[in-house]
Structures are given as structure tokens and as C-alpha cells.
Sequence to fold (818 residues):
Amino acid sequence: MAVGNVPFPELPPVEGVRLGTAMAGIKKPDRRDTVVIELPDTATVAGVFTQNAFCAAPVAVAKAHMERCLSENLVPRYWLINTGNANAGTGEAGMRDALASCAALASHMGVAESQVLPFSTGVIGEPLPMERLLAGLPKAVSSLADSSQAWQHAGEGILTTDTRAKGATVTVAIGDQQVTINGITKGSGMIKPNMATMLGFVVTDAAVEQSLLETLLRETVDRSFNCITVDSDTSTNDACMLAATGSGARIESAEQVAVFRNALQRVMTELAQAIIRDGEGATKFITLQVNDAATRQEALGVAFTVAHSPLVKTALYASDANWGRILAAVGRAPVEAFDVNRVVIDLGDVRLVENGGRAASYTEAAGSAVMAQEEITIRINLGRGEESATVWTSDLSHEYVTINADYRS
Amino acid sequence: MAVGNVPFPELPPVEGVRLGTAMAGIKKPDRRDTVVIELPDTATVAGVFTQNAFCAAPVAVAKAHMERCLSENLVPRYWLINTGNANAGTGEAGMRDALASCAALASHMGVAESQVLPFSTGVIGEPLPMERLLAGLPKAVSSLADSSQAWQHAGEGILTTDTRAKGATVTVAIGDQQVTINGITKGSGMIKPNMATMLGFVVTDAAVEQSLLETLLRETVDRSFNCITVDSDTSTNDACMLAATGSGARIESAEQVAVFRNALQRVMTELAQAIIRDGEGATKFITLQVNDAATRQEALGVAFTVAHSPLVKTALYASDANWGRILAAVGRAPVEAFDVNRVVIDLGDVRLVENGGRAASYTEAAGSAVMAQEEITIRINLGRGEESATVWTSDLSHEYVTINADYRS
Fold:
């Protein structure tokens, strides 16, 4: 199940960036499951990773290799991604496997081991099938290309329970030059990113200095991947990477940064929303907008409390305007000295709650008409300050239970 | 659905306590939906109520009436409970209705209005059908009795989506006297009590001074109703009441208090667990035991994070030993400077996780054998200190979605 029909967009080439994909049979035969992304040696690279204390071996290795490259002035030129196995909860053996897969690709391409960053996604706790993965590498390398088909195959090659590949592209003028930003992402369940989503890979041809690139990645992820939730479960493997190849316009002045940040935010938000639209069992795409909070943290607290409520999510699935469940979820959110008489809740353009109870103007017919829609916005005004937050989520359906009760079988 | 087959126990009379039930047709015809519990004027009474900021009108009135009784040396002698309507999110009109229902019963019984405490449970945001409720009162009053049948009918008269009535009784010797503690409770969904469960009513014939009674209620609820969760949603109407009628043994000395607290804890825990066994769509009863935490708060944080994880709950439903999901949930729990290499996780008597990954001794067959059971204990040892917590929860099934996607229709 998924919300709407969103085809994979046509991603234009980004100079110096090539993508290769193979069917290595990591978990199942005849599906793209191994992806190599190549960057030019002019690139700057930034990454954000899961905050889950049980972070997977490839996350630990990717972080260590990033640091090593920075200290030795090397570019992490290869991103090696496999699906079908998360290499998480695999202890020492998992670390050895992640390092060995980097070493294999590095020797193939003639770069240092630390220039390869590994990413894995799939089932947790099974050993990575190294033989198959290593056998697939030459095939992935031989297919390296910069075509839009190569981007689409890479988008497909990182999926797990996703029902479709997810990509986004924006082209924007910086001075008299065009800058392109391409991204692909995957994720459908175990989605409550805390730093980044399951996996996101974004590349631009702009030239962006390292520390600025890191800042831009953090800022835009904070308002995209860090604002989505399917099921409140933060993955062990979350990672979002951003590379700037440097062949295009240089991003330096405040104005250039503003235009570029805006374009990058569009790509990040589109990718993050694509994950929700393809959330496990999703039949609805829900936007939760919390306004007039005392702090952004408070606004996020209210938005996520509502977004995680199984009772709100099942009511959304049923298209039932059971607004009492929204009210009950808001009422248990982490807000100090909460005066609920100031709270105003709107469902689409229908006022649900004011003065501590159901709005006088509310009718069941009006509420039901909004709930019947596939895309629904819930606005919660706290009346406490001027901060706000927007969070995107999906509903909780029979299909969600089916997918997660059957995933390993 | 529900876990196991738990008949309503035979509750013995508690001197001076009578219960009456009526079919008032609050929401549906031909079901017990209005209950009156009468206490003698020798009783002490304590209560704990929901922390949800949107607390329901009857909760606000019950708290105000309790305070008034305390300051005027009156006993809150009548508990008036209706199911089928929560009288929550109903604003000023809801307050008027709650007060009017107290006034009606008070004038019927010849007591002050503040001596009646109202409790409501059911759908949120609909006006309380006062005409039907008031018409039902005389019938409930005329059926007041202390028989075990009266207890069972009262247990039935407070249910909503519950599949069965829930009661518990313990008799214990205090010196040369027998003390009886009887309790009934209801709750199945919107269960993540924060002070008390949806509704719990416990009565003893012991004589317990007011402030001691309040302390005992808080302490025992903290380790029973406050340690259960079905779906992480805290209700607007939670309340747990405890009355000591004073006709039996006096509880004063440290030893008497210890024996009585122990017996009371047994009743509270049995009632709280009964809610989980009858959790919406429950097919499994799960005990989460977190040991060797730095603080009890930390232990509760880990236990509830795992208990709320939809991915853990669907794996339990599927009897799938997908222990990676437990590990991932533990890893995202609110624990400062978390060294996961010290974490040990056992599923029943099977070791799942140690040294940051899957235990060397683990086999899928052993894990699956435990997961196939109807009652499962997950032990998580954090290796950080000496505090612990136990939390009880149910699984997440297709039936849960069905119940909550259909509840209002």
C-alpha cells in the first residue's frame, strides 16, 4: 500500500557522479541489492547518522572512515550500499565484514580503504553474506554510469519493504550558473529518524566548503528526515549523506547560501515525504502542524505525540473524525503547565477544538468530509508562544500489521 | 480477543459496601451501563486521577468533591459510574452535566452533592445523555446489594471495549482479624495510565487513616496500573479509587502496614494485569523486566520504549523471534551515555543479546519456542546500577486495528 501514485523522477546527470547496481542475491535472487556511488576527487562530503545506541557496524565504519578522510585530506569517493541485511547487532564479526567489504571495493578502484563508506539496510542480526556481496561488487562497478537510468536503478537497489523507488531533483540558478541537486532515499518502516532517515543519498554539482556542507545537511535534515515518523521506531542504520562535487557554482555568499539551502531543503523534504507516502501500510499522508508553541522542542513534542498515537492513526485509517483521540493525545504531550483552554485544533479547514472542548461550529459531516481525503492536515495551535513545527506521518492499517508480522518469513 | 480464560472471581461482601447496577441505555440498549457504589460513613477514601491535560469533566468534579469532603469532614459515600460516554472534551456543558448527575443521586440518597463522585468512560466528545442517565439512577439504587452477584454486575457495568469483567480479591490476616480487599477495573484500549488506569474501584473493610490510605494507593498504583500499557495513549478519564470502610482491623503499626500493603499490591497488580490480558486485540501477555538500571526512571524508560514499539509488538503477535527489533528499541530508549556492550537481553530463559550483538549461544529454534508461548517475559539487564522496573503490555494484532478503526461505528 502507498499513498498516491508517485513515479520516480527523471534525474539529470551530476558531473563526475556515477552509479552502479548489481543483483548479488544478498537475501533474494533477481533483485537489485548492491549499489556503488562514485564521487569525483574534488567533492566535499557530509553525513549524519542514527542516534540509536545500538548503531550498526556499517554506521560505525562509515563514521570512522569519514573522520579519517577529513584528517588525511582524502575524499570518501565511494558509497557502497547493500539491502537485504542491516549488518546490525552482529558484534565483532559485523565490524570485520563491514571493513572487508570496504577493502574489497577500495582495491578494485585503487583508492584507500577509508575512502569507501559502507551502508547496509534490511533484517537486523543476521551475518552479512560476504561471499555473495563480494561477488556482486565487480558487476556493480562495471555498470557505473551517470544516466538517469543509473539513478533509477540505484534508487531501486536500496529498497527493503518500500513499494517504490524514491528520488527528487531540483535545479536552481546561482548567479549565472545552474546548480543541480539529486537525491534518492529508502525507508518505509522503523521510521522515526533521529539525525537522518534509514538511508538518503544526495549529490550536487555545486562547490561547497566542508563545514558549510555539514551545517547545511544538519539544518535541512532537521526539518525533513527528522520530522517524519511511520511507527516511532528509530533504526540502527539511519544515514543521510550529502556530497558536493565542486564542478559547478561555488556557494559562498550569504545570498548564494540562502538560495542553495532553500533548494536543498526542497529535495530533502520531498525525499522525506516520499518515505511517508510509502510508509508501511500507509493509506493516508498526514501533515501535523503545531503553531504558537513556547519552543520548537515543545511543538515537536506535541506533533510527535499525536503522530505516534495508535488511536489517532487507526482513526485516520478508518476516516473516522474521532477528534477526541487527537485531543487526548495533545493532552498527554510533554508540555509544562498546559492550559488546554487555549488550544485550538483544526482538521483541514474545519475547527475541531476550542475553549477546552469541541468547537461550537463543528459538525460531524464537515469533519468526516476532511477525514475521507487521502492527504490531511491537522493544525494544533497551543497559544503559548511563537514557535512552530511540522511533522509528517502515515496512518496505522491492517496492512501495517500484516507487513510487520510477516517481514522475516 | 483476549489472553487466556479468566473468569470473574467470587468477590465476598465487604461490610457496609453495596453496589447497584442499571441498564440506562446510555449508548446501547440491554447492557449494564450505570453503576452506583455505596460506602458507609465510617470510610476513608483516596483517589488518583489522570495526568492528561484534557481531563474529563467527571474527573474535575470528582477531584473537587474529594477536596470539599476532606475540608468539611464528610465521607464521599457514593461513586456514580457510567459507561458508553466519557463526558470528555465537552467543555462547560460537560461540567454542568457531571454536577447535575451528582446532585440527582445526592438528593435521592439524602447526602450532600459533594459526597457523590462521578466517573465516566466511553466515547470522547459527545454530550452525556442526561435524561437516560437520570432515569437509570433509581433503578441502580433499588438494586444496591453486597452480594458477589452485585460485584459481578458492577464489574460488567463499567466495561467499554473490554471483552470481560475484571475483579480481584485478597483476604489477609492482620493480627487475629481477617481483612478483605475487593477490586474491579475496566480498560482495554487507550491504556497507558499516568496515575491510574481508566477506572479502578477498590474497597477494603480495614480501618486506614486518610493520609496513610493516600500513600498506600499511590505506592501500589505506581507499581501496577502505572506500569501497564496497551497502546501508549493516556486516557482523559483515568481514575483509581480506594476506600477503607473501617469495620475491620485497624492498619497502624509498621508490620500491619507491610502486610496490608502487600495484599493491596496483589489486588492492584492482578487488576492491572487483567487489563493487559484483555487489551484490545491482545493475543499475548508480555512482561518487560528491566534490571540493573541507574535509576528506576531509566528502567521504566527502557521498558516503556520496548513496550510501545509497534515493531516489537507486531513481532510478538507473529511469534517471530525478531530480536533485532527489541535491540533497536532498547537502543533508542532515553538513557544517557548508553554503553550497549553491557546490555544483556533474555527472552524467557533464552539469551538473545550480549556484548553488543546476538548471544553466541542463541539459536532461532530456542527463540521461536519462547515466542510461541502466550505469556512471555523479556528481561533486559542494563549493567548500569541496581534499580529495576517491571512493565506489562500486550501485542499489536490485526484485531487491534479492526477494533479501533470501527469503534465509533
